[in-house]
Write a structure and sequence with these properties.
Low-confidence stretches: 1-5
Helix content: 25-40%
Radius of gyration: 24 Å
Bound molecules: pyridoxal-5'-phosphate
Mean pLDDT: 96
Number of strands: 20
Largest sheet: 8 strands, parallel
Shape: elongated
Structural class: alpha/beta
């Protein structure tokens, strides 16, 4: 197995590190419990993409401890990794899986998404070959325009699944396109379409065991979309689904991103800094070089910010692969070895993943998913 995440559980001493992430597992546990209390539903914790960059294995163990009823992933390989790590709760792969993988899914008790009649038939035949039964969740496209059988065809599709004896019709689900913009009417329309599918199946006596739909934003803002279980991802990490669909105030961001200053130098006016000399000092300036670059998941753009000595500092010159330079205030006591914060708190200042996301013209989701494997994750408050 590829060593995907470096795990240093409960090591509070970061002296040896030049760049690292601190993941507060206590915050993740409490966020999951907050979702359970708020929605009064079992939580299907969505931990795709290395648990939104936070680290799949440790976050999964924490989610199970917090009471998550299911874990949901995007790819079957992630699910197999969890089984190999000894996780036994039900797992759903929400993305597309090749029919060749059906024997693996059966062996590891992994439930698969199925999104059309051809795939259902292929899974049925693959399961038949190994004399097994594969658990499936039918995906219905009620308006996302991505995976899923179109809602008009979903009743026929459900009846087909129910008739194939090497499939176990375990669940049916849909996904919302705009739940993080609660003012838009499309989510309610998607819910009505989904309800019509469920009623149609019922009229034929087809009752998939579990009905689920709500991502984080819908879990909070659309109570009638909670069905049998909710399927939150971003909220687990204490990150807001969007500026319009904020989490309740008590949720806690779990991740901090830190690195160290590698050197501090004073340059005369007119000194070019970093590749391409996009930045020239205009006076005598103190410039710090820090151990963070685009290969860690930082963005190679101009105008970035960070925290040094509890103050906001600005980038000076282009971001390099492993390093970057930062303009220090003239009176800054910063020196080599000091901590710099990219996401998190320092003194009275704070930079959130949401703020980095808006500076990078993207969302907090992409910021945390972009954190690369070479940045070690330290797990606190297990
Ligand atoms: C990613 C994803 C979720 C979780 O979405 P969040 O906005 O992170 O809560 C739920 N369902 C599906 C199908 C997804 O792809």
């Amino acid at each position: 197995m590829i060593p995907f995440e470096v795990v240093y559980t409960n090591r509070m001493n970061f002296d040896q590190q030049t760049i690292w992430l601190e993941i507060d597992l206590g915050a993740i546990r409490r966020n999951i419990q907050r979702i359970q209390t708020l929605t009064k539903r079992p939580v299907m914790a969505v931990l795709k993409a290395n648990a939104y960059g936070h680290g799949l294995i440790e976050v999964s163990k924490t989610a199970v401890k917090a009471g998550a009823a299911w874990l949901c992933l995007a790819r079957v390989e992630e699910a197999i990794r969890l089984r190999e790590a000894g996780i036994t709760v039900p797992i759903l792969v929400m993305g597309y899986t090749q029919p060749d993988r059906v024997p693996d899914a059966i062996e590891h008790k992994i439930s698969l998404m199925v999104n059309n009649q051809e795939l259902a038939q292929a899974y049925h035949l693959a399961a038949k070959q190994v004399k097994g039964k594969v658990s499936v969740h039918a995906k219905v496209d009620t308006g996302m325009g991505r995976l899923g059988v179109l809602y008009e065809d979903a009743v026929d599709f459900g009846r087909q699944i129910a008739s194939l004896n090497h499939l176990f019709f375990e669940g049916i689900f849909t996904h919302f396109a705009c739940a993080d913009e609660p003012g838009k009417p499309i989510t309610d329309l998607q819910i009505r379409r989904f309800d019509r599918v469920l009623a149609g199946l019922k009229s034929y006596g087809v009752h998939p065991k579990m009905v689920h739909a709500a991502n984080s934003a819908a879990s909070i803002y659309f109570p009638h979309a909670r069905y049998d279980a909710v399927r939150p991802g971003i909220a687990i990490f204490g990150l807001h689904p969007s500026a319009e669909a904020k989490l309740p105030e008590d949720f806690e961001a779990a991740l901090s991103w830190k690195c160290r200053i590698a050197s501090v130098k004073t340059f005369p006016p007119g000194s070019g800094i970093s590749y391409g000399h996009q930045y020239y000092t205009t006076q005598t300036e103190r410039i710090a070089a820090a151990s963070i670059g685009y290969a860690d998941g930082f963005r190679r753009r101009m105008g970035n910010i960070a925290l040094i000595n509890g103050q906001r500092v600005k980038q000076a010159g282009k971001i390099c692969m492993d390093q970057s330079m930062w303009r220090l205030p003239d009176d800054s006591p910063a020196k080599a070895g000091d901590e710099m914060v990219l996401i998190g708190r320092q003194g009275d200042e704070r930079i959130t993943a949401e703020e980095q996301g808006s500076m990078w013209e993207t969302v907090n989701y992409e910021v945390v998913c972009g954190l690369t494997d070479r940045v070690p994750r330290f797990y606190l408050n297990e």
